[in-house]
TrEMBL record:
Keyword Ribosomal protein found: no
Organism: Alkalihalobacillus trypoxylicola
InterPro entries from the UniProt entry: Cupin_2 (IPR013096), Homeodomain-like_sf (IPR009057), HTH_AraC (IPR018060), RmlC-like_jellyroll (IPR014710), RmlC_Cupin_sf (IPR011051), Tscrpt_reg_AraC-type_HTH (IPR020449)
Key words of the record: DNA-binding, Transcription, Transcription regulation
Segments forming domain HTH araC/xylS-type: 238-335
GO molecular function: DNA-binding transcription factor activity; sequence-specific DNA binding
Bilayer-crossing regions: none
Keyword Transcription regulation listed: yes
Source organism, top-level taxon: Bacteria
Signal peptide: none
Official protein name in the record: HTH araC/xylS-type domain-containing protein
Amino acid sequence: MNIEELKRRLFTMSNSEWMYKKNPDYINPIYGQFDKTEVEGQEVVNFSFDKEKKPPFVNSPYLHEPKLEIVKHSRYSNIPIHVHDYIEMNYVYSGSCVAVIQNKRVPLKMGDVCILDTGVPHTIKEVHDDDIVINFLMNKRYFTTSMLSQLSSNDIMSDFILQAMAKDRKHNRYLLFRSLQMDKLKTLVEYLLCEFYDPSVSANEIINAYVIIIFSELLTNYRNEDGLQAYQGKNQVMEILKYIEEQYKVCSLESVAKYFSFHPNYLSRLIKQKTGKSFKKIVQEQRLNQAEYLIKHSDKSIAEIMTEVGYQNHGFFNNMFKEKYGVNPKEYRRTKMLLH
C-alpha cells in the first residue's frame, strides 16, 4: 500500500459511517454490553482492551500484536463518555474534532496528539466528512522493558512523561501535543498505517519500531518547542525538573527550594504530586542513570564515576546501583564488556 492508497482508504465512508451520518442521534446498542463504573460521581462506560481487540487479518502472514490495536474513529458516531483499561493515543490526521476530557471540551486540529491514561473519562465528538482521527489502543503490557529502554534517553524529562503512560499509579492524566512543525510525525504515521493495513511478514516488528520513533518524535518536539500541555502546574514542575537534571550532582531539597523561592516542604509535596516520585528518588535516579552511562561508555574507574555523579560513600553507591540494575557496578561493567 502506498500513501495515496492509504488516503483513499481513510477517507472512504464505511457503511457504519453512512448510517451514523443519516441517523445523527443513533447510539450503537453494543455500548450497553459494556460494564458501567462511576468516576467522580459520573456514570461512565468501562471499555476493555480484550473486548475491543480485533481478530488477526484473514490469510495474512502478519501475526497481529495482541497488545496493540489501531482504529480509525468512526465519523458521525455517538460514543458515550467512557474510561478504559488501556492507554489511548488519538492522532488527528485530517481536519479537526473535539475531545471531551474530564467534562472539559478540548478542540483538536490536524497534527494534534492526545495521549490518555486509563481512568480518564472522555469521548470524541464533531468528527465529520473531512475529519480523520486515528486511535492507537495500547495495552499497558505493550510497553515492555525493552521498549521503554529505547524510549528513555537517560534523562528525567523522558522518565516524567513515560510515567504518565506506563506506571502503576492513579491514572487520571492526559498529555496533549499541539501540532508544531510536525510534518515528520504525519509521514511516520502514514508509513505505520500502510504497514498495518497491508502487512508484510515482518509487520509486527516494523509497526513496533514506528511506534517507538513516533513517541520519541513527540518527546523531541516537546523539548524543542515546549508543546506539551497536560495539567495545571506543568510549566513550573518542568522547570524544577530541568534544574534538578542540571544540578543533580550537588543539589538538595533545600537548595532547589531556595532557587525557586519555595518552602522545602511545599516543594517536596509538589514534586511528589506531579511526578509520583519523591525529590530524593528523582535525584538518585538521575545520578544512577549517569553512573550507568559512564560505566558503559568510559574508562573511568568506579571510584571516579561515583564521585563524579555526586556520591561519597562507596558502600551506599554500590547498594543503590545494585538495587536498580541487579548487580554491583563492577559486575555490571564486566558483563557489558563480555557482551561487546
